[in-house]
Structures are given as structure tokens and as C-alpha cells.
Amino acid sequence: MKQFTVNTTLMGKVTDIAEEEGKFSIKCRSGDEFQVAVGKETRFQFLQNLDGVNRDRVPTPENFHQYLPADLVRKYIQPHSLVVLQGVYLENNGSCQYDARIVNLLNSYKGQDELVFEQTHWWLTQISRLADSWLGFLFPNKQTYEIDDFALYRTNLNIIGLPTDDEIQECATLSRLIYGLSSAYLLTGGERYLSAARAGVQFQRETFRSLTSDGKHCFWAFGKRKTKYSYQLYIRSLNEDDRDTIPLYEQIYALAGLAQYYRITLDWEVLDDIKRTVRVFNDLFTDPESEYGKYAYGDYFSHLDYVTLNWDSPALGDNQSRKNWNSIGDHIPAYLINVILALDPLPLTDRGHEEIEEFLATCKKILKTASTIIVEKFPDPDPSVPFVNERFLRDWKPDHNWRWQQNRAVVGHNLKIAWNLTRVANYYYSLAAQSAVDNAQQAEEAQRLGDKLMKLADNLGMKMAEIGVDLFRGGIFDTLERNPQNGTSLEFPWFNTKDFWQQEQALLAYLILHGCSNENHDQKQEYLRLARETAAFWNLFFLDQDNKGIFFRVSESGDAITVGQYGQKGGHAISGYHAFELNYLAHIYISTYVTKEPFCLYFKPNPDCRARSLNVLPDFFRPNALQVTRISIDGSDRTSIDPDNFRIELGEQEFQLGSAAEIIVEFTPKS
User: Fold this and answer.
1) Is residue 579 within 8 Å of 523, Cβ to Cβ?
2) What's the rounded Cα separation, in Å, for the pair 560 and 541?
3) What is the distance between the terminal CA atoms of the chain, rounded to a whole angstrom?
């Protein structure tokens, strides 16, 4: 090649250092090594969070000259450290060189073993700044919130967070924002976030809830748009993939915020709406002839005709009698895990448990059926295909002709499966441990199911590391052809871009696989390396430092794409959800599995919640992963704690003043 140049990013570990020449070498995940040249204009910078703090605290060596490449290398480059480079790659007549113009450093000043995004406050800071930005965008100059404030809520926000001309208010995206605000409260105890979440829940329930005449079923309208004198409520979806239908995934995500908010408040009205919505899933979306049983709650069709409420209506077109990843798998992270965590063990109450116990049993059945279906139906029967199938006909034959998906894989969906199957495996391992003494058969069945789920999770985690991860720059690719026809192992239907939510799925998958994989030590360490590389790419390239938000899509090298819908801070496919979910769970997973540091969660049960106990387990963990080390209620620490009991009993004194008690629970990982 003659005078070929390209502006590109490289990520790798430092191998050789040639200080005198102002050069060093890195080895990428691909195994390729690059010699890196530092120039007078090369800038060395530490990874920055949304707080804008400069974390460069590296001591300046003696006789240091800021513009000498040799001195810059001497000061900043450490052997074996992970670095991310931005610069120009050149090839000319067989010779090649990489000229670094920005060297991004990820280690703290304390030493090369401590990455800045594994420090105690990194994710707490990020979720706080994101929550502040969202509230500032939507409700300027407010610190407390009422239902009327959310009349100004807008789904679509432009690149700087201002409302666009489209005044649509989508229910599912509002629910996702409520999830984010609730998560911000859980991590930080910020009353502002809970106030906003509470008002958002009230607005969602009053604006979008549609109850059937018997009051037993709850549908959620797609959205509401203001007209000149009134407003138009849309029951049917306006999203292009689902237009004029009731898609199950929108109903599922209408519960995401409610379920996370319920964990904090135990608000019985919210739980009632969750129960009525799940009844819709089971009465209207379930396949009545499922091979998974007569009442196979978990085997769901993806769409209903909004007129007939039938999944087999010809009016659904190519969504008729279809099942997909969203209709089966999205139940698990959106609401199931949080509902089960909140209700199991059953809450202490002065009223009967029967209805809650029945609902909990239903949720457990959905969890088991959905997980089993994913393991049995989603993997491709051809072992040479690394991806799951994502869309299906009624009889579970793969549908490779559906619109844009065709025979294509979304990398993030594969990693989302790996992440969530690991979580569910943890649940069954815990169930096996609980049942070991009293019910040996139940314990064996739970252990066997946990092993089956972990096997697929591990398989997908490693396969996506080979094909879905950018081996040179870091980050997770978007969509790939499942059977490449270009003579290589990698074929992109469109471009080799990277979307924000897929980085989230990857980071959470690799963190939890590092902590929970049944594989050997080397593979667990490989998962940790993958998690760290993904965290580096996320924090470097998806944080909008100017507007304190998240970019939807970046190029292969991390350059933000801000054209059209990808220049929006809020929209149908982006809201206060995935980034907040990442902040919330990354903090918990890193504390538990990586740094082994204590962390706190905050709760505030409503005075009229009816329950006299609170379940506080943060996520599905394996037995002996965490212990409770402190419980503080309204500023007073309890003197007697059972470290292995994640159900906190509440007395009348917690509600005697008619106001909600702030409950802080400290968790410490077990070694």
C-alpha cells in the first residue's frame, strides 16, 4: 500500500517500552502487536467520569520536559498496563507505523492494578450525574416533583437534552426512566431521585393504564401526544417494527420502572398493577398448545391484534403467531428478577399471603419456563454458528425472513442471554442449597437446571469474545450475519458500529461470568479482562461529557454518531434505562466479584405498604456470596443482625409518625 492512512483507535496492554526513542509497544486482544510513536503533540489523559474531574495524579519525575516524547513515555507508560490509543495508522510500501495523538490511561495514581472505573464512587458518580441531567433536561429548576410535572415529560430529546418537535410521551420509555431514577435512589439515597420516581409512577398509572371491565387485567397504552386543545392516546404501537399492534415487549417494559420502584417502597397499588399486567401476559399472549405444559407461563407470542386481542390475526402480518427473544427473554431483566427478589421470601403482613404467594408462584413459573425455552430453542443446531436464533414461528422453527433481521444476529442479545442466564442460574443454585436438607429431589433438579443455564451462558460469553468483540479497538459490534457469505468469519449487514445498550449487556455479562462461571480460573480471569476492556470503551466513548448524557451509537473507533435519531438523548430506543441499569449493577458486581468492597442500598417503604418486612438481596446471588453487615433505620443502627438473612423485619415504630423510614443496608462480600 502506498501512503495509506487511517484515523483509528487501538486498545491493548503495554509490552515493550523504549523511553529514549519516545516509543512503546502494545498487544491487542487479537494478539497483534503495534509499535506506538509519541510526538510533541501527543496528549496523555486519564479516563474521565461525568463529574469532569481530572484524575492525573502521576508524580512528575525529575528533569521532566512536557514536550519531550521520551519524558512523556517515562512519566506515564507502565509495563503491562491497559491503554487506549487514538491516533493515525500509516502504511507505505511495506512499512507501517502508529502515531499516537491521545493516550488514554485507565489506572489510578495508586498503581497499575487499580482501574479508575473500579474505584468505590465511579458508578455512584455516573448514575447521579445522569439522573441530574435527565431531571434537568425535563424539569428545569426543580428539586421535588409531583404528578403534574410529568405532564411536561417528553420521550424525544435532542442532542443537548431539549424537547424535539414531536411531543409524544411513550409509556415504555417513561417506565424505563422511572427504573433509572429508582436505581439512582437505591445506590445513593438521593431523595430527589425517589421524589421524581414517585411522581413518574403516579403519572404512568393515571395516564397510560387501561383496565379491563372486570378490573383483573391491565394494558398499558403505547403513548400520548398533545393536540391543539386536548391530547390523543394511542393504545396501539407507533413504532415501525410493531405498528398497529400490541407488542409484548412494550407491555413488559411498562413494568420495568414499577418493579424497581416497588423494591424500594413496597407500594401495594404498584404491585397490584404489576399482577394485573402479568395476568394479561398469561391470559392473552400464552401459546395454549405449548409443549411446555397446559399453563406454560413463559411461552409467549410477540404481538396481539389491538382490535381482536388475538395473536393469530392476519392483521398482524409478519408478526402473526410469532415468538422472539423479546417475548421470551425480556421478562427476566425487566421485572421478573426484581419482583421475585421483592416477594421471596414472602413478606410478613397482618393480612393473608395467599394472593401474593400465588403470584410469586406464577412469576417463578415464568422464570423457569422462559429460561428453559432459551436453553432448548435458541441455540443454533449447527455448532459452527456461534449465535442464537432470535425470531421463531409458532412451532419454534427459526424465522430467517423477518424484515431487517433476516438471518442476522444482534451481538448484544447473545450477551444479554449470557448475563441473564447466569443470574437465573444463581437463583437455582441458591434454591438447591436451601432444599438440600429437606427435599433432595428438588435440590438436584435445581442444581441440574442451574448447570444447564450456566453451560449456555459460558458458551455464549466465550463465543461473543471471539466474534462480537472488536479485537483491536475494544467495544461490542452491533449486528452480524449469522452465516457470512463474504469469505471471512465476520460480515456486517450495514456498518461496524457499536450501540450503547450492547456495551451494557457485554459489561454486565462479563462481570457476572467472572464472578460466577463454573469454568476454570484462567477463563474466569479472561472474563475479567473482557469486562475491563468493555468498561474502558464505554467510559471513554459513550459518555457525552458536554451534555452529561449517553451517546446512542459510535463508530468502530468510538467517534459519536449524531445524525438523525442517533443524535437524540431520548427516543423510542433510548431512555433512562440501560445506562442506569449498567451503573447500578456494575457497582454491585464489581464490589462483590472484583474489589470485594462493601456497598450500601437504600430503601424507603411507604407507611401504608401493609408489609412488615423488606427483602433486600440486591440481585440473584449464589449462596455465601454476600452478607448483611449493617442495617440503619432513620439514622439508628440495629445492634443485632443475622448476616445471612436478607429479609429485614419492620416494626410499628418504623411507621409510627406516618412517614416513610429511610433504611440503609450495608452488604459485604464473603471471601
Assistant:
1) no
2) 7
3) 55
Fill in the amino acid letter for 184.
Answer: A
Q: Which pLDDT score is estimated for 486?
A: 97
CA distances from 462 to 7, 466, 469, 530 (A): 29, 7, 10, 10
pLDDT in tens, 446-499: 999 999 999 999 999 999 999 999 999 999 999 999 999 999 999 999 999 999
Listed in sequence order, the residues at least 6 apart from 344 whose beta carbon sits closer than 8 Å to its beta carbon are: 360, 364, 615
Q: Helix (H, G, I), strand (E, B), or coil: what is residue 299?
A: coil
pLDDT in tens, 398-437: 999 999 999 999 999 999 999 999 999 999 999 999 998 8
The answer for residues whose C-beta is within 8 angstroms of residue 478's C-beta and 6 or more apart is 410, 411, 412, 494, 496, 497, 498, 499, 502, 553
Instruction: For residues 254 and 342, give the distance between their C-alpha atoms in angstroms, rounded to a whole number.
Output: 18
| Burial letters 369-404, b for 16+ CB under 10 A, else e | bbbbbbbebbbeeeeeebbbbbbbebebebbeebee
d(CA 30, CA 35): 15
pLDDT of residue 593: 98
Per-residue pLDDT tens over the stretch 286-336 = 999 999 998 899 999 999 999 999 999 999 999 999 999 999 999 999 999
Query: Is residue 6 within 8 Å of residue 56, measured between CB atoms?
Result: no
Whether 246 contacts 303, CB under 8 Å:
yes
